Amino acid sequence: MRKPIVGISYKTYINSIQETFKMLDQIVRLTGTEKKIEQVIFPSIGTLYPAAQVLKGSNIALGAQNISPEKNGPFTGELSIESVKEIGGRYVEIGHAERKTIFKESQEMINKKTRLTLEEGLFPFLCIGEEEQENNEDLLYNTFNFQILSALNGIHIELIKNVIIAYEPFWAIGKSFAADPEYIHKSHDIIRNVLADLYGKEISKQIRIIYGGSVSKVSTPFIINNNNVDGLFIGRFGHNPKNYNEILRIVMSIKC
Ligand SMILES: O=C(CO)COP(=O)(O)O
């Protein structure tokens, strides 16, 4: 069975090392021994190394919000996967809506980063999602199919199961409320079908699909209550460690 997984991104909201220490210390005390669920924290990039020190020895993994498309070389301003690995990072977030819209990240770039992450033995949180709410299921299928196929193009089939698909509809990020649970469930079903059509049923069953976009403790029980939703990718409404802990407990009570 797929192990539930919850990620939380601090984006560029929590940038002080002291504040990061304080928050992660609380989180480690609240949830750091849980084994039935995977937890990943994606701290603000300047706090990645100190965050790694706090998470070390707990059951909470470290993730990088972005990496350079190649291990080393002339990529000014980028974070190398070599550094992520050295400090114990296990996950890499790739293709977030903000990187696509603000930093103009292309599908080709997303493909390079995803491939590098998998070949280096780490686990990508591959973000996909439509820009506008879309009720036509065929159009949604085509959008997901294109994004997944181009991101995973040329990657060895053996590695595909290590991908975590983070379904984050652009239009639901940074809002007051998450997308409607029924809409989320339908999208996850479509993504599972896309994966089965591309890589076969067996592999599709092993890939975790999680939802992100204005998730809160209020919406969590409704979103998570579906077989094809394997976890959450939390933003602002989990930045308070107590809220994060509550969200995690709800997910565990339903999934574990
Ligand atoms: O983008 C997200 C996680 O990657 C979600 O962020 P918000 O929950 O703040 O909308």
Automatic annotation (TrEMBL):
Catalytic reactions of this protein: D-glyceraldehyde 3-phosphate = dihydroxyacetone phosphate
Keyword S-adenosyl-L-methionine: no
Quaternary structure and interacting proteins, as annotated: Homodimer.
PANTHER family documented for this protein: TRIOSEPHOSPHATE ISOMERASE
Official protein name in the record: Triosephosphate isomerase
Gene Ontology terms for molecular function: isomerase activity
Compartments where found: Cytoplasm
Annotated metabolic or biological route of this protein: Carbohydrate degradation; glycolysis; D-glyceraldehyde 3-phosphate from glycerone phosphate: step 1/1; Carbohydrate biosynthesis; gluconeogenesis
KW Cytoplasm (keyword) present: yes
